[in-house]
Amino acid sequence: MDRLCQQLLPGPGAKSCVSIAAAPTLKVRLYRPQVLKNRQRLLLAVHGISRNAEQQLQAYSQLADELGIWLLAPEFSVQHFSVENLRNAESRLGS
């Protein structure tokens, strides 16, 4: 895991990356606004084909600051979330 993902929660105006126990292969990039105004809302930015969660943080951090809410950007890596892996999971579920 990269150094950025070793941090837990970022301070005001900072970002970090965490793994969730229920989905350890899924990295989640976090951005905490300069001033946290609303603890009950968050902004979820899901990357497209580029699979670049860091780019999503850069694109939406200003909006997160304006709204005063956390920004989360999950990173669906090719290694763990390839089309083949998703098809295999789907076939195991009987879909």
Give a written overview of the molecule.
The radius of gyration is 15 Å and the shape is elongated. The termini are far apart. It has one domain (3-92). It contains two helices and four strands. It has 95 residues and is α+β, with helices and mostly antiparallel strands.
Summarize the helices and strands and which ones pair or pack.
Elements: E1 15-20, E2 23-31, E3 42-44, H1 53-67, E4 70-75, H2 83-92
Parallel strand pairs: 3-4
Antiparallel strand pairs: 1-2, 2-4
List keywords for this structure.
95 residues; elongated
Helix content: 25-40%
**What would you report as the Rg, rounded to the nearest angstrom?**
15 Å
Strand order in space, largest sheet: 1-2-4-3
Strand segment tally: 4
* Terminal CA distance: 33 Å
Structural class: alpha+beta
Bulk shape: elongated
How many helices does DSSP assign?
Answer: 2
Number of domains: 1
Q: Give the SSE string.
A: EEEHEH
Mean pLDDT rating: 78
Beta content comes to 25-35%
Q: Show unreliable segments.
A: none
What's the main sheet like?
A: 4 strands, mixed
Task: Describe the structure in brief.
With 95 residues, the protein is an alpha+beta fold. The protein is built from two helices and four strands; from the N terminus they run E-E-E-H-E-H.
